[in-house]
Design brief:
Radius of gyration: 20 Å
Strand order of the largest sheet: 8-7-6-9-12-17-18
Largest sheet: 7 strands, mixed
Structural class: alpha/beta
Strand content: 15-25%
Distance between the termini: 38 Å
Number of strands: 18
């Protein structure tokens, strides 16, 4: 995608090699900064501190973290340490473990002196695959937006509500939930996006709004609790969200607050779609509520907020009653029964085990539930 006319991905090999560069998402939307990751510790920190975030991008960063580690220590012990260091940085998003497993399986049989080069090559392949998958998700989701426009007689505007950030900042390129929106906008379909602010880290207000603005997509930021009200008044034609993990039977784990949007959509007859790349499917898990580990992050993310002063200075301020404790669950699970359909790179399917296996039959042997 483009920032002020210049094409970017979210992660790339630094000029001269031996390091990786990423967009520091903790600085957006107030500052656009690029961070250099030169070793395993830097990659692990970038994932844990959410310098990079979004399930597909976390996976790509993890793959490059393995390559960086193997540059320093390609031994079996070095490989094991790299894997264990990275896999615990973000426990909910399945793409991280998927990418780490893929790199470990590919390099383990190789001689030590061949491992690092193989890991760098595979990490680049994972990035290219993700970009292609997300563009394909965009094409599949575009059909749903076109159908919504047809339903309106191809008059007026298609209003889409989204939650958190599932745009290109959350992936290597294009995005998941936002990819169909970009495709529709570029095709000339009049589209408007309701952007949930997405407390406590405000990924909607700070990231989704920023990238939609850079692309010229009409949008408005709304408070997290506005979605049901907008739906009641016919101001939402469809919801599209992303996900960090989808179970074998179609339960969806996404940013906290997604479940409430799905409930409101169900009550108001608004289609609720979830966009996902296939590596986000965890075929080993059936019941998302009971089996998916939910990351609990620092309560300071709830009690403090960052903002820009009139002079351009960015500061962090306390917003809660002094001394009051807080809890910060980062994700919730939306049961499959509340999901209208899943949007994948291979097509749109019902949020059921058979729906997923209809698109990914090769997974039948390992799918549970």
């Amino acid at each position: 995608m483009k920032i002020d006319g210049k094409p970017y991905r979210t992660i790339w090999v630094a000029p001269g090699g031996g390091a990786v560069e990423v967009i520091d998402q903790t600085k957006l939307p107030h500052r656009f900064e690029i961070v250099r990751l030169g070793d395993l510790a830097a990659a692990a920190h970038a994932i844990k501190a959410m310098v990079v975030r979004g399930a597909p991008l976390i996976g790509a960063a993890g793959a490059y973290g393995m390559a960086l580690a193997l540059d320093k220590d390609p031994s079996d012990a070095g490989l094991a340490q790299a894997y264990e260091t990275l896999v615990v940085t973000r426990p909910t998003a399945i793409n991280l473990r998927w990418a780490l497993d893929r790199v470990r399986a590919a390099v383990s049989p190789l001689a030590s002196d061949a491992r690092a080069a193989a890991a760098w090559t595979l990490a680049a392949e994972i990035c290219d695959e993700d970009a292609a998958i997300c563009e394909a998700i965009g094409e599949q989701g575009l059909k749903l937006i076109e159908a919504a426009w047809d339903k309106k007689g191809r008059t007026g505007v298609v209003n889409v509500l989204t939650h958190c950030n599932a745009g290109w900042l959350a992936t290597v390129d294009w995005g998941t939930a936002i990819a169909p929106i970009y495709k529709a906008h570029d095709k000339g379909i009049p589209i408007h996006v309701w952007v949930d602010e997405t407390r406590p880290r405000n990924q909607g207000a700070s990231l989704t709004a920023w990238e939609l603005g850079k692309h010229g997509v009409p949008h408005r930021i709304v408070a997290d609790n506005s979605g049901g009200h907008l739906m009641q008044h016919g101001l939402v034609d469809l919801c599209i969200v992303g996900t960090d993990r989808v179970t074998a039977r179609g339960d969806v784990c996404n940013k906290i607050g997604t479940y409430l949007k799905a409930l409101a959509a169900k009550d108001n007859g608004v289609p609720f779609y979830v966009a996902l790349p296939s590596p986000t499917i965890d075929w080993t898990v059936a019941d998302g509520v009971k089996e998916i580990p939910i990351e609990e992050r620092s309560p300071l993310e709830v009690t403090r907020i960052a903002g820009r002063l009139p002079d351009g200075t960015v500061v962090e301020v306390d917003i809660a009653a002094p001394g009051s404790p807080a809890r910060n669950d980062a994700f919730d699970v939306t049961p499959a029964r509340l999901v209208t359909a899943l949007i994948t790179e291979r097509g749109v399917c019902a949020a059921t085990g058979e729906g997923l296996l209809g698109l990914f039959p090769e997974a039948r042997a390992k799918a549970v539930g």
